[in-house]
Amino acid sequence: MKPPASAIDALLDGTHADPFSLLGIHEGPEGAFARAVLPGAEEAVAWSLSGKKLGKLTRVDGRGLFEGKVKGPRQPVRYACKAGTHEWLVTDPYSFGPVLGPLDDFLIAEGTHHRLFDKLGAHLIEHEGVSGVHFAVWAPNAQVVSVVGDFNDWDHRRHPMRRRADIGVWEVFIPDIGEHRTYKYRVVSADGTVLPLKADPFAQAAEFRPSTASITAHPVKMDWGDADHRAHWASVDARRQPMSIYEVHPGSWQKPHDEGFYTWDELADRLIPYVAEMGFTHIEFLPVSEHPYDPSWGYQTTGLYAPSARFGPPEGFARFVDGAHRAGISVLIDWVPAHFPTDEHGLVRFDGTALYEHEDPRLGFHPDWNTLIYNFGRREVVSFLVNNALFWAERYHVDGLRVDAVASMLYRDYSRKAGEWIPNADGGRENWEAVEFLKAMNRAVYASHAGFLTIAEESTSWPGVSKPAFDEAPREHLGFGFKWNMGFMHDTLKYMARDPVHRQYHHDEITFGLMYAFSENFVLPLSHDEVVHGKGSLLNKMSGDDWQKFANLRAYYGLMWGYPGKKLLFMGQEFAQRREWSEARSLDWDLLDAPAHEGVRRWVRDLNRVYASRPALHARDCEPEGFEWLVVDDAQASVFAWLRKAPGAKPVAVICNMTPQVHGHYRLPLPHDGAWREVLNSDAQDYGGSGIGNLGQVNAEGGAAFVVLPPLATLILEFQG
């Protein structure tokens, strides 16, 4: 049956909603019939892929439409085109069958497809005997979706897609193209509006900003050399392992020049040896996904599946992770499911409707960040995000995710005034859809990737953030491995900013944290958030003159490394960066020429080494049996002392003197008589201190020892037996 002229016009205009019904090979009672759009051709002959001539087509429309009978059944065909003296071959995309199958449809519709990153997006495959790229995108409310790119002159008429009506996914296999091809989707909404060209939500590579196209790319395949590293973490309980995390913004740790970035390979050569020498166990990167705006630091991502082009091709990041693992260092990445930006090439109104976001801004807009909120009540959106977590674990071997802004997901009234939010069905402020999403994500990654861990940046007292999210568990339990201890950070920094003469009146700012220190599996964070937006550097948060600031900072780090919980320090603070951090410039590495700054660096290095090598300091970080107060109430002297312990390990005592006075004969209760070695002293001259100490050892008799407490200093003593 010959289609009506209106259908042909729509086809040639690129507005026909079902191009596969007209194009390609169609079998009929009189044999097979071919129809193709071949712009610029004057003649066209159809050939099978095996080289058999199937028939000559006739140009029936000056706009490039060819038709004709062909031999054989429906099959992929290749057209030999001719115009004047020019000849070329075109393999017909519309002669191929679909790539996605019924099982994909079922799992996608159910929201339980855990291999979406293999199915949606752009994938280099061989299909029905031909190599090419399969494109698939979810846009259920679109009228027409076309792939446009450098392979079709960005002409939407060339490659309109097939709609899989049951799941709202559009797909097309385009033969004879490969990797490094730029593309976007041209989406026509249900009312006929042509939307701004959209980047692929599942793109695994993207152009360097300010360009925004997606790029076809092979999955990152390489010879991984990290089997031992991954096997180790799969075999242990992370709560009982040393975890000292170095938080890094990859664009400003070091820079080759003001406007540029080191590639992942160049960063690997510099950063991995440095982290190893410093004794950190983990690197945590601020978001590495593609994002358009440098000052967002990656937290406003438009390409969750694509490592940012700022640092070279995606495989460079895989090589970095592999290199870190070979050096015994784990790699965590910041992950941002809490919000997404409103850039028109991104997810916003992707098919002309509120697809990934909420229609009502009271449910779906962050006033603080001018960003949109994912619709966690939609299974396709949850599947998109859960698959992204699985993607980073599988494709890039990352060891875990630090999940940003969890509190903003948990509460419908987050940063909102009355009338600016909608209560849940029970009239409460909890966002139970977000809770279910977080639980689903944690279940998925912990079930499929042994040794993987998740860390929540959660700033409230939500119960059970790091409690397992079993089916029978309380509704609130989220299933994270760890939670940032924001209370520790706020209280202790407030204390350290006080003049020592006033600290005796605020003793509980240090002691109070132990009331809840084991209610969650905590990470103690001194993160990038504490050294931006006018907050100053950690050094400048300390009280006193310059000497006292350095002494306070060393004492504070000693307190933190001796305190129960895993450790996190933002880059630059390990050598007492003076200036507030800016993403636009490198850290001030020249400060290491100054003895005071180099002293802090050595102190952090040695803290890391002692922390990792003494099970008493890490093996019970998350359990109350690993902590015991020795001195809790000496507010007048501003002295704190506690014991860290673990089964089978030598106990370790941590003592902090937070005044500038030397306590020369301080009675320190100790649970074991005998020798206690002074393994660390923040006042040692090697770290920039005054050199006051205990000559390397103290002796306990009758349950106590008389010790020298240096000014503004932390001591770490280990029982020798």
Name its key features:
34 strands, 721 residues, 26% strand, elongated, 7-stranded antiparallel beta sheet, GlgB_N, 8-stranded parallel beta barrel, single chain, alpha+beta
List the helices and strands and how they pair.
Elements: H1 5-13, E1 24-28, E2 31-37, E3 43-48, E4 53-61, E5 65-70, E6 77-83, E7 86-91, H2 102-110, H3 116-119, E8 121-127, E9 130-138, E10 142-149, E11 162-164, E12 169-175, E13 182-189, E14 214-215, H4 227-235, E15 244-248, H5 264-278, E16 282-285, E17 289-290, E18 303-307, H6 314-326, E19 330-335, H7 361-364, E20 365-366, E21 371-372, H8 379-395, E22 400-403, H9 406-410, H10 432-448, E23 453-456, E24 482-484, H11 486-496, H12 500-503, H13 508-511, E25 522-526, H14 538-541, H15 546-562, E26 566-570, H16 595-613, H17 615-618, E27 627-631, E28 639-644, E29 652-657, E30 663-669, E31 674-681, E32 697-700, E33 704-709, E34 713-719
Parallel strand pairs: 15-16, 15-26, 16-19, 19-22, 22-23, 23-24, 24-25, 25-26
Antiparallel strand pairs: 1-2, 2-5, 3-4, 3-6, 4-5, 6-7, 8-9, 9-12, 10-13, 11-12, 13-14, 17-18, 20-21, 27-28, 28-29, 29-34, 30-33, 31-32, 31-34
Helix pairs in contact: 5-6, 8-10, 15-16
